């Protein structure tokens, strides 16, 4: 593999790791939504406008927090198991490392083919950790979401509506004919 191609691969793997870290953040937020926001507000539901305003405020506050604060809110709500707490603690450490020090820490490794190969392997491992953490959270969240009436069909429709709002066909529907 030539240097330029491998350098692009490092950046691509870094970008994917950061994307997955943000997906994990969203999983934590979704968990809080169904374990914190809904229980405190569903009985007071009067109209959609009121609900939307309360939810928008909640979303703004929660998503304005750092990942560490979101995880702390999750812990304070008493939701995660010890296993999830451990996985989230490690994910937070890796996320912060990626954001704040990864490339300076790897500056020497980045200039060698071998070092870049190690970086790619490490980033793949970090990606797997973020995926695993999100799945662990989602496994707990989705049955509760279903209990509130958020069906698989509603989930699929919401995803499609978000994608279509960009005026493009989803990747999985384009060339494959799905």
Give a structural overview.
This protein is mostly helical and 178 residues long. The protein has helices spanning 3-41, 48-63, 67-76, 82-100, 102-105, 113-147, 152-164. The protein has one domain (3-147). It has seven helices and no strands. Helix 1 (3-41) runs parallel beside helix 3 and helix 1 (3-41) crosses helix 4 (82-100). The protein is elongated and about 60 Å long.
Q: How many strands, what sense, and barrel or not for the largest sheet?
A: none
Radius of gyration: 19 Å
Count, helices = 7
Report the span from N to C terminus.
34 Å
The chain-level mean pLDDT equals 89
Taken in chain order, the helices and strands follow as HHHHHHH
Helical content (DSSP H or I, runs of 4+): over 70%
Total domains: 1
Report the count of strand segments. 0
Strand-residue proportion: under 5%
Unreliably modeled segments: 174-178
Keywords:
178 residues, elongated
Present the secondary structure layout:
Elements: H1 3-41, H2 48-63, H3 67-76, H4 82-100, H5 102-105, H6 113-147, H7 152-164
Helix pairs in contact: 1-2, 1-3, 1-4, 1-6, 3-4, 4-6
In short:
The chain is mostly helical and 178 residues long. Helix content is 76%, strand content 0%. It has one domain.
